[in-house]
Amino acid sequence: MRLFKYIILLSIVTLTALVYVHQQVELVKLSYEIDCKEKKLKELLDRKGILRYNISNLESPSRLEKVLLDRKVSVSYPKKGQVIRLARNPSYVPSASLRVSGLGERAGIFKLFDFLSGGPEAQAREK
Amino acid sequence: MHSGTFRTRQISVFLFFLLSLALLIIRLFYLQGIKHSFYYKIANEEHIVTVELQPKRGTIYDRNMRVLAVNLNRISIYANPREIKDKAKAVKIISAVLGSSSNFINERLSRNKGFVWIKRKVTNKEAAALKKFNLAGVGFVDESKRFYPNAGSACHLIGSVNIDNKGQEGLEALYDEYLKGQEGFLVATQDAKRKLLHSYREDFLAPKNGYNLILTIDEVIQNIAERELYKMYDKYNAKGAAIVVMDPKNGDILALASFPNFDLNNPAKRQTDSVRNRAINDFFEPGSVFKIVTASGILEEKAVDLNDKFDCENGEWKIGRRVLHDHRPHGIMTFREVIEMSSNIGTVKAAMILGPEKMSKYMKLFGFYERTGIDLPGEVLGMNRPLSRWTPTSMLAIPMGQEVTATAMQLASAISVIADNGFLVRPRIVKRIENDEGEIIKEFEPQVKRRVISPMTAYRMRVLLMGVVEAGTGKKAKVEDFSTGGKTGTAQKVEPGGRYSQDKFVASFIGFAPVGRPAIAVAVCVDEPHPVYFGGDVSAPVFKNVVDESLKYLNIKDTKPGVVK
What we know:
Shape of chain B: elongated
Strand order of the largest sheet of chain A: 1-2
Radius of gyration of chain A: 36 Å
Helix content of chain B: 25-40%
CATH superfamily of the domain at 219-553 in chain B: DD-peptidase/beta-lactamase superfamily
Order of helices and strands of chain A: HHEHE
Helix content of chain A: 55-70%
Strand content of chain A: 5-15%
Shape of chain A: rod-shaped
Structural class of chain A: mainly alpha
Oligomer: heterodimer
Number of helices of chain B: 19
Number of strands of chain B: 21
Largest sheet of chain A: 2 strands, antiparallel
Strand content of chain B: 15-25%
C-alpha cells in the first residue's frame, strides 16, 4: 500500500514535470513562430511602403510631364466650354464645410462686394 | 570476519557517496547562494537583451494627402573587427559587393573596436548579396531612410534630415519634435543563437511613430510653378528665382519654389547656393511692384483721385540734386495711367501729396517692417528704416520701391491684401498635424493680422491693377480665360559701393486672379536675368502660365469686377 502511494506520488511529480517541460518547449516553439511571423509582417509592410512610394513616384506630376515630353506627346488644357464636369457621387460628403469668412467685421460690409464679385467670401475650415 | 569486511566496505561506499553529496550540496550552496547575484548577472547578460525599437518618422503630405516625404526600410551593415579572422578576404568581398573603396573598408576593419559601421542604409540588393557570403563578424541591422517621391520639388520648404533621421532644414527641422516620434524598447530572453524568444518577454514599450504633417502646398500647383519658373530661370541665365503662390483668403501657400534647387534624395550632391530658400531668405529692393503700397495709401487716404492728372516731365525730372527717370518718357497722365505705365515721376509726385508719415504708415500696415510669420525657418527681416531715419530724399525713392527692401514672401503677402479686400493674413504652410490613425494633434487656423485698407480701396486697387495687365506694363501677364491684375517691377540692384548697378536687376511681377473674386495671389522674382531684365518680360509670363493652369486645375470660374461708382 505504501509502495503504491509512493508510485502514485512519483507519477504525479513526473507528470507535472513533463507538463512543465512540454509547456516550456511549446513556448519556445511559439516564440520562433511569432518571430517568423513578425519578420514576414515586417517584410510585407516594407514591401507595402515601397510600393506606395513607387506609386507616389510614378504619379508625381514632374515625372509624368517628363515622360510625356520624352514621348513627344503634346497636351494642352481644354478651352472654355470643352470641359463637362460630372456630378459627384450623391453619397459623397465633403470633409470640409464652407463657412462665411466671419473674421471679425467682414461679413456686413462684404455683402456689397459679394454682390459685385458674384459670391460670398467663403473659405474652408477643417473640422 | 567476512561479514565485518563487507560491512566496512559498505560503510566506506556509503560515506564516499555521502561525502560527495555533501560536497555537491556545498558547491550548490556556494553557486546558488553565495555567488548567486554574480552568476545571475552573467546569465542575464547572456540571455536577456534589451532591444531599442525605432519609431517610424512621420510622413509629409500635400493638401490632398499626396506623399511628399516618407520613410522606407533600409539595411545598414556593421562589423565586429575582433571577430573577423581573414580580414584581407573580408575587405575584398565587402568592397566588391558594396562598391566601396577597399582602403576605406580595410581602415574600418583594422580598428581595435567591437563595433564599426561598414555602410549605412544600403539597398536591399546590396545587403542580400553580402548576406550570401555569411561572413563571420559582419552583421546587418534594419534602419529607415527618408525618401522624397518628387525629388527636388519643394525641396526648400520640405528640408532634409541627416543620416540619423534628424531634421536639418526646412519643415523637417522646424517640426522635428512632431515628426521624429518616440523610441520604444523590448526586454526579452534570447536563445543560444541570439534569436529573441517573444514568449519570454520581460518588459515592453511600443515605439510611438512620428506624427504626419499635412501641408497647404498643392503638389500639382507646386509642379506648375516650378516648371514655369525654371523655364525663365534657365532661358535668361538668372542668378536665382523665387515664386510664391498663395490663397489670399486664408494665407495658404499653394506653391513655393526657389532656384537653384537640389534633389532631396541626393543631398550630398547639392551646392551651397542651392540650399537657400530665396523666397524668404533673400531681401531686395522691390522696385515698381512696391507702387501697390504707395497707390493703396494714396487711394485709402483720398490724397489723389484716379483721374487726377500729373505731369510726368517727359521721363526726366530734376528735383533738388536728384534726377528721377521713367523707363519711357511720358507727358501728362492721370493717376490711373501713372500706375498702369509705372511712371516713377508720377508716383513720386502723388506720394508727395500723401506725405512721408502716411507713406510710412502704409509700409507698416502692409507688413514691410515685420516678418510675415510663415512657419518656415530662417525668414529674414528686411532693412527698412523707421520714419525717424528717413532722409529728405527718401520720399523720392521709397514710393517707387527704392530705399526699401522686401522678400518675395512679403510681396505675396502684400498683393494678397489687395486680393483679400484689405486684410493682411499670416501665410501658413502647415495645415495640421495628425497621427497614423488620422486624429488631429494640432491644427493651424488661418490668422488675420489686421485690416490694412478698406474693401472699397482694395476693390479700386484690383481694378487699377487689372488696367496694368490690360493696358500697361504687364500685358504679358494677361490670361485668355481669366481676368488678372498685377504690377510689374524692374529694380536695379545695389552694388557693394552703394551705387545702383547698370546691368544687374531683379525682375518681378506680383498679381492675382480672377479680379472679381481672387482665388490666388502670385509673386514672381527673378534675380539678375540676362539679357532681358524687365519684370513685364521675364516675370509676367511666368505669372500668366501659372495662373492659367492653376485656376483651371482648381476649377475656378472667372469673375470680373462689377461697376463701382
